[in-house]
Specification:
The chain has helices at residues 33-46, 58-66, 75-79, 109-118, 156-161, 165-171, 180-187, 192-195, 235-249; strands at 9-12, 20-23, 48-51, 92-93, 132-141, 151-155, 175-178, 205-208, 210-213, 218-221, 227-230, 255-258, 266-270, 274-278, 290-297. It is α+β, with helices and mostly antiparallel strands and 318 residues long. The N and C termini lie far apart (47 Å). Bound molecules: fe (ii) ion.
């Protein structure tokens, strides 16, 4: 179709090393391959894309995601006993609404612990043997404006490039040991059910800390709140280096904040180039906020990290 390639407009955000706004995405018809390819290339370059007030729904979001690879799903969480509000397994429910369609209450420890965990910096799927590639999230229902809930991103490629050469050399072969439990322990110091877990005695996903972002060839610091220690180093030493690197990447100069304005707003991010977190705003416990995410499995050579691709059981939490 003539002109299809020109339907998208990509406008980089000013004052940030990551992120761009996308205009011209239309989900009323299937997204053509040319457009999805253009979108993917822009995503790899900018790390984060934001589209406002789109006409996407669950099925059109999934159709777009499937063009970029097989989709992760909630099967492991269901097996662990988690009850689901939504009946499409490819959709991760990151709302504050429970399966009975009520606001999640402070007393619902498991759901509160999960929301708090998502508010720590991470790359989706880093705690699994096969990590996530691209994530897409969209707003279905939003709380009143000014009540918070922004999504924040960190430019982990620039943060890697900014490391001194000696530090790059030091970490080049380090393998991070990742578990979802470590995220939950840090996020929920008041919850006894997590504090007794020994993160050296649970299944750990191994992913290198210093990586190459294949589509651009740039270096990337792949670290976040799932990373408990470093393979082959004394636990304390690995935790100290992990903490040091996290403090580096978490500096404000690497951060982009995306606010949610209207239903249909979407954010796309490349988990192999940026980190992200949710923020818990004043809306929590007061107003409904329905956000839905899908994620592709990474298909780069780094996808399985140092894990056995033939033994890649995913981790699920109730
Ligand atoms: Fe996430």
């Amino acid at each position: 179709m003539p002109g299809v390639l020109n339907t998208l407009t990509i406008t980089p955000f000013e004052g940030s090393t990551i992120g761009a706004r996308v205009d011209g995405l239309d989900f009323s018809r299937p997204v053509p391959d040319e457009v999805s390819n253009e979108l993917k290339a822009a995503l790899h370059e900018h790390g984060v894309l934001v589209a406002r007030s789109t006409n996407v729904d669950d099925h059109t979001m999934i159709a777009l995601g499937k063009k970029w690879g097989p989709l992760d799903n909630v099967t492991a969480h269901k097996k662990a006993g988690r009850k689901m509000r939504l009946d499409i397994d490819e959709i991760f429910d990151v709302s504050n609404i429970d399966p009975e369609d009520n606001l999640i209450a402070e007393g619902d420890a498991l759901r509160v612990s999960s929301a708090r965990g998502n508010a720590l910096w991470h790359a989706d799927g880093a705690y699994n043997p096969r990590r996530s590639g691209i994530s897409i999230i969209r707003a279905v229902e939003l709380p009143p404006k000014g009540t918070g809930g922004e999504t924040e991103f960190l430019d982990s490629r620039t943060s890697y490039e900014d490391l001194p050469d000696a530090k790059k050399m030091e970490i080049q072969n380090y393998v991070g040991m990742n578990t979802l439990y470590w995220n939950r322990i840090q996020a929920n110091p008041d919850m006894e059910m997590f504090q007794s877990i020994d993160c050296t005695q649970v299944p750990l996903a191994k992913h290198r800390l210093a990586q190459i972002h294949e589509p651009t060839g740039r270096g990337n610091l792949y670290i976040g709140s799932y990373n408990h220690h470093i393979e082959g180093l004394p636990i304390d030493e690995g935790m100290r280096i992990t903490h040091e690197l996290r403090s580096h990447v978490e500096q404000d100069k690497y951060k982009l904040t995306v606010s949610w304005e209207n239903p249909g707003d979407m954010a796309f991010w490349d988990n192999t180039a940026v980190l992200h977190r949710a923020t818990i705003g004043a809306y929590a416990g007061k107003y409904r906020r329905d956000m839905r995410r899908i994620s592709t499995f990474d298909d780069s050579k780094w996808a399985y990290g140092e894990n056995d691709p033939n033994n890649s059981q995913q981790i699920g939490l109730k």
